[in-house]
Design a protein that fits this description.
single chain, alpha+beta, BirA Bifunctional Protein, domain 2, Rossmann fold, 2 domains, eight-stranded mixed beta sheet, five-stranded mixed beta sheet, 20% strand, binds histidyl-adenosine monophosphate
Length: 427
């Protein structure tokens, strides 16, 4: 026998038990986003490679090492599986002129692809819920996005997720900081690891984000970007903070929070937990006022974030907050030819009035069908023999919380099952 084929490492199947949890999460997320006036948008999974190089930055880990890129064999075009959604979202907004008459609040959900080393919480195909507000300049949007993500953790009943914020200022402020930072790091060049040496002149800000413990002292003594921020940038940062304080949402300023994508300016933030091991960032984002223009649009401020669905769901499951929901309400078992036809009618009738119904298919004894009914997770079994079929009746047996089996007429069935599922006893 040939070996069964396996999924690609770091790309996971999501099997029914887990997929149902995903659906529950997605329903909650949709309601939450509607509550803040965000509208959905869906972009392709594949985009022209230059989009990401231009948006995310040519000297970032994502663009340098992590993109799944390939050449279109028909026309030689360089294409990439999207590693994130912001670049695609802005591309779509510009392509369809959505910023023409008003700002936009958009969200998307779906798979992203990064060729990283897989480990718990870090996958090669992972899923994000992304939120982008385009055309908004004030700190109110930054604060609202931070607070709205906080509300989602509350809605999900998640605890232990902490907020870190920072300001990256504007490009001229970063340029002055960068010059001083490079000078400082050059005088301590011998203490830089290989990554640090490589990034010294290309992306020195990222050196501050190093996880290498031997470089912590060096990084602690480096010039801090916050000291280079001008009045306007500081005012924006203070504006965000005062709204967070008004809302009673605690936060920590992390001067080393620089993010791995180059499009950010001013506010950046991350929600982190220590409950997921090394991959503790469940949500991250910030302001990217230059990106729209960089991708060919009229200058337009913007702010957004994305959360890692796998990480949040791991936390949700670990913390035991996901409610198990029945997969179906009613399992219909039947035996005999007339019973089979009656069962079909009963199942359709129950679906007409809104129940989720699994009609037993494939025959078998009542006993084996009842086993299936039990295993299905249904709340009640509707049992139909030729006897019931002839009398236009159904026997209803509760499967979960005990309770008597009883027989009802076809017309009284839906009401009886409703009562069964909602509570009261069988008369
Ligand atoms: P990001 O920080 O690269 O930002 O990703 C956002 C979140 O996606 C991370 O905090 C993490 O939860 C999740 N994530 C990232 N990589 C992986 C992975 N390999 N496996 C599992 N989860 C992962 C962005 O992507 C920006 N586009 C966010 C944004 C939107 N900024 C503005 N608007």
């Amino acid at each position: 026998m040939s070996q069964t084929l396996q999924a690609i490492r770091g790309m996971n199947d999501i099997l029914p038990d887990e997929a149902e949890l995903w659906e529950q999460f997605e329903e909650l997320v949709r309601d939450w986003l509607r509550g803040y006036g965000y509208r959905p948008v869906r972009m392709p999974l594949v985009e022209p490679t230059p989009l990401f190089a231009r948006a995310i930055g040519a000297v970032t880990d994502i663009v340098e090492k992590e993109m799944y890129s390939f050449t279109d064999s028909l026309n030689g075009e360089q294409l990439t599986l999207r590693p994130e959604g912001t670049a695609s979202c802005v591309r779509a907004v510009l392509q369809h002129n959505l910023l023409y008459d008003s700002p936009r609040k958009l969200w998307y959900m779906g798979p992203m692809f990064r060729h990283e080393r897989p480990q718990k919480g870090r996958y090669r195909q992972f899923h994000q819920v992304g939120v982008e507000a385009l055309g908004y300049a004030g700190p109110d949007v930054d604060a609202e996005q931070i607070l709205m993500s906080g509300r989602l953790w509350d809605d999900l009943g998640l605890t232990g997720i902490e907020l870190e914020i920072n300001s990256l200022g504007q490009s001229d402020e970063r340029a002055r900081h960068r010059t001083d930072l490079i000078a400082y790091l050059e005088t301590h060049r011998d203490q830089l690891d290989a990554d640090g040496q490589r990034r010294l002149h290309t992306n020195p800000l990222r050196i501050l984000d190093t996880k290498n413990p031997t470089m912590q002292a060096l990084v602690d003594g480096a010039p801090k970007l916050i000291d280079y921020l001008g009045e306007t940038s500081l005012k924006h940062f203070e504006g965000v903070q005062s709204l967070l304080k008004d809302a009673g949402r605690p936060y920590r300023i992390n001067p080393r929070l620089v993010r791995g994508l180059d499009y950010y300016n001013l506010t950046v933030f991350e929600w982190v937990t220590d409950q997921l091991g090394a991959q503790g960032t469940v949500c991250a984002g910030g302001r990217y006022d230059g990106l729209v223009e960089q991708l060919g649009g009229k200058p337009s401020p913007a702010c957004g974030f994305a959360m890692g669905v796998e990480r949040l769901l791991a936390l949700w499951a670990d913390q035991g907050n996901a409610v198990e929901r029945p997969t179906v309400d009613v399992y219909v078992v039947h035996q005999g030819e007339a019973a089979g036809r009656h069962a079909f009618k009963v199942a359709e009738h129950l679906r007409d009035v809104g129940f989720a119904v699994q009609l037993h298919c494939g025959g078998g004894s009542f006993k084996s069908q009842m086993k299936r009914a039990d295993a299905s997770g249904a709340l009640v079994a509707a049992i139909i023999g030729d006897d019931e079929a002839q009398a236009n009746e159904v026997t209803v047996k509760p499967l979960r919380d005990g309770g008597e089996q009883c027989r009802v007429t076809f017309d009284g069935l839906a009401e009886m099952i409703g009562e069964r599922i909602l509570g009261p006893e069988c008369e």
